[in-house]
Amino acid sequence: MTYTAHFKVWRGDADGGDLNDYQVEVNEGEVVLDIIHRLQATQASDLAVRWNCKAGKCGSCSAEINGRPSLLCMTRMSVFTADETVTVTPMRAFPVIRDLVTDVSFNYAKAREVPAFVPPAGLKPGEYRMQQQDVERSQEFRKCIECFLCQDTCHVVRDHEENKIAFSGPRFLMRIAELDMHPLDAAAEEGLDRKVSAQDDHGLGYCNITKCCTEVCPEHIKITDNALIPLKERAVDRKYDPLVWLGNKILRRP
Amino acid sequence: MATGTTSSTESADSSPARRGVHTQGRAAIPNRHLRTDRWWVPPLVTALGLGAFVVYSTWRAFANGDYYAAPYVSPFYSPCLASNCTDMNGGADWHLFGSWWGISPALIVLIFPLGFRLTCYYYRKAYYRGFWASPPACAVAEPHATYTGETRFPLILQNIHRYFFYFAIPVAGILTYDVVLSFRDADGNWGHAGLGTLVMLVNITLIWAYTFSCHSCRHIIGGRLKHFSKHPVRFRLWGWVGRLNRHHMLLAWVSLISVALADFYVYLVASGAFDDPRFF
Amino acid sequence: MTQVERHTYDVVVVGAGGAGLRAAIEAREQGMRTAVICKSLFGKAHTVMAEGGIAASMGNANSNDNWEVHFRDTMRGGKFLNQWRMAELHAREAPDRVWELETWGALFDRTKDGRISQRNFGGHEYPRLAHVGDRTGLELIRTLQQKIVSLQQEDFAEFGDYEARLKVFQECTVTRVLKDGPAVSGVFGYIRESGRLFVIESPAVVLATGGIGKSFKVTSNSWEYTGDGHALALLAGAPLINMEFIQFHPTGMVWPPSVKGILVTESVRGDGGVLRNSDGKRFMFDYIPDVFKEKYAQSEQEADGWYADPATFRRPPELLPRDEVARAINSEVKAGRGTPHGGVFLDVSTRLPAEEIKRRLPSMHHQFKELADVDITAEPMEVGPTCHYMMGGVDVEPDTAAARGVPGLYAAGEVAGGMHGSNRLGGNSLSDLLVFGRRAGLHASEYVAALGTGRPAVPEDQIDSAAAEALRPFSAEASDPDLPQGQVAENPYTLHQELQQAMNDLVGIIRRAPEMEEALSRLTDLRMRSRRAGVEGHRQFNPGWHLAIDLRNMLLVSECVARAALERTESRGGHTREDHPGMDRTWRKVNLVCELSDPSGGLADTDPERGQVTLRRRDMDPMRDDLLALFEKEELLKYLTDEELAP
């Protein structure tokens, strides 16, 4: 079934811009990214958009469709009615570069601030032994395709630019959780407490667990339930729970 | 040059026109949001539901009456710790507080289940969204000029959730004891079951399910371990709690409704508005 | 003199996929100031699309496995056209490269005793692929990306600057390798975001740009795969080899049209999926070639027994090498037994319980559900061949990954040729990236260290002509006074679509001489029109402009493919000639070498009607005796000529 759809696409740059109207052909089975490509090929050859794999695996084509942070390549046109206006804008938590392309350098800067995996001393390559049940939690977080939609939707930075300094956002708090749950990460032996660092250096306390990150995650990672809340509980272990502290003192569990 | 490192954080102008999604440098779109669905329905329903419970429970907690109809006791009033409690025939009416406590004895104990739910990770989401609009819905701009989340007083106290979890266990234990007692008839003879027994049984099941599905519980029971493989029993328990935890929101709501219904049922029977049908 | 941004580094790596990042890590660890340039954002490279795993003979699943078995499998898969020394190095070093990833934080699936789990794959004798579910490529990229970040953190601690010794220039495109006489002296390119031009002076350049799939209409490759590295090497005077060998993966999605070509992993068949035609027949039993008759099941019963008991039963024919399966599907569709959308059915729904499918193939389930509205636990998929991998590439020294003929130029990964011969085995690409990525980084560093202070200079005239070339699409209309004001001469998107259609139809999976001649003439036409390709707007993040520049590379590479495919009058691996259906032993040791017709590299000045590349034949080095001894004589007879075997 082919029809002509009404699209509104934001065009402009850091100095300003507008929602532009387009009438564009839509065929059966297409996704929003196909329509954007058709616009490029027929009506707006310089329409800027990021994309790579077109299969939901690289996380490049993040934008907002009818106000919802989404991947352009994973939003099928069949979810809209033929007479519905489809509005496509760049992600609104980051500075815009041009059209649908935003400056996501905030995320790369935050990625650098998370201390890397610390290999255990005394284990050579090939000597690592880990059980499947011990790696599964971190494996879930490593499914992340870094589309940064969670960072985009998180109201902590989306609605409060000033919090970008103190808050690393769901993606990188999840990265800390991933490392803290890694069965062989030796950060603690090196004197780095990732739990305390999550709270003190990465703004875990800003998260008020309203779960928008989980809602928008195209990989369906349970960011809030499996990463952020467990990380908050781990921070409580260190900072707010004398019972656990006492238990550790008595039992001397490493 | 595009190296992914230039900090995008500019000096924040806090005037509403230049705040949040309208910050200088972001795509210039006047709308606070562009969502076309009925995004306001979930927070509205949440606010109405929680609001209804608050009104109802405030009335019942202060009422100080019609909370015991042998052998049933309202979950709002158990354990009952002041001297002004009704005699409950072997029930949890332990007069620890003496006679100086003059107002409703429900207020002594309710603080614990209330605190448990108030600091619960699900309810936090629900009321931050429903009452505080922080945020009202995903990608819908919140109305507040500043935001510090749970980093400072009073919201930093949310971190004590696990203490309320510790307290929630004996409270649920006492409510379980109440259910056991409801298998006696009004005279204290075993072998009774009425509609009230069933109501209390369903309620306590949901309360336990909600309690064990708690995120703090999941953490304490196994989530805090680095190596599940070295703790097979706790790993299995963690798995079970995890399965319950996936339904934490659902359990939060149904147990909230069931606790109100159980109380309301006792109220109806105690006030004489309804006769408890007896099964055996 | 053109105004450009200028930087100086010791080593420049073009491409930030598996090979590029591994090369950069190595160069930085060798003490070189290293720059990585990538067209996309850091961490988005096409490597993330790899699903199955990394082939390495660690022997975790079967202790009989070792590098010699892996080497044999690789040579057989490539039909003995592989550069044998590369295949040897690859098989020997792959386990170390995988283990190294663990020390950087990678989390592979585990065996019961806690080691890295390994899975079966087409062409591999033992379970050999280290994997993470069906998203191994993502794990590889993320691990390398995070290793780079950790090196930057070290530099931050030491110098107070994350980028003191290792910097990623993301969303930048290199359009020319610059040279001082014969030797590399830097790269020229543009920043996609701003459209500004830049030069990085560097005596060593590692090409790691991946493949050429975007020259074809139906492909599993992402937009970046425009053959940039292949073209940069050619233009810098380095030859390409084996360009006729392109792997068509047998199972790509065929519907809806917008996702046509997206990969359906081989694991679907490995886990029990079967191929059926529109008559419901499991047709693969009719397509088992004689050389494989002893190794594959002849009946459905026998094939079905294999999944549970591989020791007693022979493998199902759905697990024949990729080239065989792709040809079989192609034949069924041509014979009119295809599905409504022009593929065949791949069915796993009647073979496994729904829960099991979701557990084993989570991303396939997700992909079909979200993109095609097909529930693979309840209905069959429709699949068909898709352009997947370029076996050919830059002609390199096997040990050093240095491009022959151009000092300072290195190539690793898909852009390098030789390693996989005429057909690549699944799982061998990720290990290839790591083994030769590291080698390229290492030897580039050694080359730079040996240079001392006498580094090649960047000639200003090369910068001027590179800048003129890059900016030409903006002045295209000016060159044609007949066109109305403001109207663009040729739409780059249209040219690209025509190129893809031509390559797909005429130099695709089954090839015929007249069609390839037709392809060459269409390429000539496209090349002439591409000179008039113009774009609207300005230089800031302008995709039309980017495509106009990429077209030069795709046209160059496509011409290599078409010329080499026309020249090789036999069928072998990823090259199937309908007019020459058999494998010819005399062609076995022949490499077809592509070189630029005008060695000065000045494309603009060449006559567009004449071809831009020329071909020559070159004999491969004979295989070392100890490696030959790894094979049975009878097997060698199928591939090698009598005189090669004589001594």
TrEMBL record, chain A:
Q: Please state every residue range assigned to the domain named 2Fe-2S ferredoxin-type.
A: 5-92
* Annotated transmembrane regions: none
Entry keyword Methyltransferase: no
Cofactor(s) listed in the protein's UniProt record:
[4Fe-4S] cluster; [2Fe-2S] cluster; [3Fe-4S] cluster
Pathway(s) this gene product operates in, as recorded in its UniProt entry: Carbohydrate metabolism; tricarboxylic acid cycle
> What would be one Pfam family of this protein?
Fer2_3
**Family (UniProt):** Belongs to the succinate dehydrogenase/fumarate reductase iron-sulfur protein family.
Q: What is this protein called?
A: Succinate dehydrogenase/fumarate reductase iron-sulfur subunit
